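User: Predict the full complex structure for these chains.
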Amino acid sequence: MIAIQRKYSIERRDFQSAGQVSSSIKKIMKQVGVNPEVIRRVSVASYETEMNIIIHSNGGTMEFSIGSDYIKIIALDRGPGIDDIDLAMKEGYSTATKDVRELGFGAGMGLPNIKRCADDFDIQSEVGKCTRITIGFNL
Amino acid sequence: MKLLEIQKLLEAEVLSGHEHMEREVTNAFAADLMSDVLAFVDDKTILLTGLTNPHTIRTAEMMDINAIVFVRGKKPDEETLKMAEENQIVTMTTKNIMFVTSGILYKKGLRGANIIHK
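Assistant: Here is the predicted structure of the two-chain assembly.
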């Protein structure tokens, strides 16, 4: 059973509204009464995912759904895709530019941190097309 | 340690969340890199940072951090402080550098927040 479902659009390099999607998701979880420890893990994973779309992709969407025993987030972007996923998953590896680093991001910790926070994690990517990240949390 | 005590020790100016100065914190995390802040795990943590952009407040919001000390005399802009108020986050600024700020608080009993290594 899916109790609540939301789909958000995220624009490339939109640092101004960065974090708004994750903030909305966090508010929903609080309203529904999700365990605070789970809320924090979902929030961190969601925020890292949102920043990834803003920093690295041509824009995309994030879909959030919460049911009675599971939270799922699907992030789908419009490319450019990741050439070497194993390398992208490596802590400390980053392709972020200097301006992104000045904002406090781009340490190469994003994807590993998302995986660490989630109970289920899947990443699929096709160069020139898209990257899809699916993350799940048990309630 | 109460935020009021931290403010006194650091001779800090409170910028937002004046009504929440009775809050207690037990740990601190010092970093200018929000990617690293997103990787620690403890509750009741105060963030010490020189980074004053809105992402600092967003990161704090996501991590349930409800107190931030800006070091080296840095102050965020009005918009960023408004975001802190909305999220009931206490922010203050101290003229001390990060190293001295950390040293003062450590000496008085605050401990470092733990990060997960996996």
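The helical segments of chain A are 20-32, 36-56, 85-88, 98-102, 110-117.
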